[in-house]
Amino acid sequence: MNIGIIGAGAFGTGLANALATQNPISLWGRDAQLIETMQSERENARRLPGVVLHPNVTCTHSLVHGLQADVLLLCLPTQQLAAFVQNNANKLAGKILIACCKGVDLATGKGPVDVIHSILPTASAGILTGPSFAIDIAKGLPTALTLAMDDSDLVLEVQRALSTSNLRLYTTDDVQGAQLGGALKNVIAIGCGAIMGAGLGDSARAALITRGFAETQRFADAMGARPETLSGLSGFGDMTLTCTCDKSRNYRFGYAMGAGTEWTSTETVEGRSTAYAVKAIAASKNIDMPIAQTLCALMDGDITLQQATVALLSRPLTQE
Ligand SMILES: NC(=O)C1=CN([C@@H]2O[C@H](COP(=O)(O)OP(=O)(O)OC[C@H]3O[C@@H](n4cnc5c(N)ncnc54)[C@H](O)[C@@H]3O)[C@@H](O)[C@H]2O)C=CC1
Ligand SMILES: O=C(CO)COP(=O)(O)O
């Protein structure tokens, strides 16, 4: 299987480097100037500075070249995925499309695979998700991920194609669970960053991770996901990583909010839009999501962090 990567941001570049250790990889990006510089300088100075691109990576801004491969890894922000698939629907039909984004589309309330299927109903689509910072993958550090597809034969072929000696993929057919674990951990990571930025302490963060995980499970359950998927790499695994590490952009965005400093970065922070998407779904399905709701109020500036803390701590006492 030929593999092509769509989106030359941090994750696309990291995956390209990892997979290039065993196959030629094309890496498509929309910014012609950046791509030409990447191809000649062998570095993505904008998103992954300091990492030397593997010789097997070919950077291209030509969609004709970028979309040639059999398997396309879509490394785009979730909120941009629908437009990309829509605009290139004819060229994407017949390909194996693996979403590598973590979020819920704000306009439709759909996860990445459902977004793809809403535009290309018969596409072979899946999601690659789990605990993995782009920089770690790019450097070839050991990483384990979840590959979710509902086609039980194809998923094994793609698993083989995307596994390397340092990149270990586990499969599942619970696409919904994999989509939601990756999306919701970003929301909780923003909250954890806010707690640490405000100096509320490690114990408060551990409480938020745990109650955030319970909230994630409740939501995923209501959406038809399987509990064991949420306990796996795409749920518990990624929540652990993202909520405890300042390499995470969601965590750092939350930290800035908690510390009262301005967030000026142009980096992708998926949890922002996903929090609102989840809040809307929860309201329509009557799912109790106090953390996501409180976080939206905080991001809107409707409440202070102190008020958010009081709101969460003063909820009726209950069983765990
Ligand atoms: N950076 C990381 O460590 C990881 C990121 N991810 C996920 O990967 C996804 C992408 O994130 P990053 O690569 O980190 O973000 P990024 O901001 O570094 O890169 C996003 C890329 O998408 C491109 N892009 C945006 N809108 C586009 C459009 N309409 N058409 C074509 N290209 C477009 C941008 O030019 C940029 O190259 C996110 O969902 C993120 O959650 C997943 C695991 C790890
Ligand atoms: O998804 C990630 C790690 O698994 C990356 O997290 P951030 O998007 O918060 O940087």
Tell me the radius of gyration: 19 Å
Secondary-structure element series: EHEHEHEHHEHEHEHEHHHHHHHH
> What about the largest sheet?
8 strands, mixed
Give the termini separation. 47 Å
List low-confidence stretches. Answer: none
**Mean pLDDT, as a whole number?**
97
Q: Shape, please?
A: globular
Percent range for β-strand residues: 5-15%
**Coarse structural class:** alpha/beta
Task: Tell me which ligands are bound.
Answer: 1,4-dihydronicotinamide adenine dinucleotide, 1,3-dihydroxyacetonephosphate
Looking across the biggest beta sheet, what order are the strands in? Answer: 3-2-1-4-5-6-7-8
> What is the tally of helical segments?
16
Roughly what percent helix?
40-55%
Number of E-state strands: 8
Determine the oligomeric state from the structure: single chain
Outline the secondary-structure elements.
Layout: E1 3-6, H1 10-19, E2 25-28, H2 32-41, E3 57-60, H3 63-66, E4 71-74, H4 78-87, H5 89-92, E5 96-99, H6 112-119, E6 124-129, H7 134-138, E7 143-149, H8 154-162, E8 167-172, H9 175-197, H10 202-222, H11 227-230, H12 233-243, H13 249-259, H14 270-285, H15 290-299, H16 305-313
Parallel strand pairs: 1-2, 1-4, 2-3, 4-5, 5-6, 7-8
Antiparallel strand pairs: 6-7
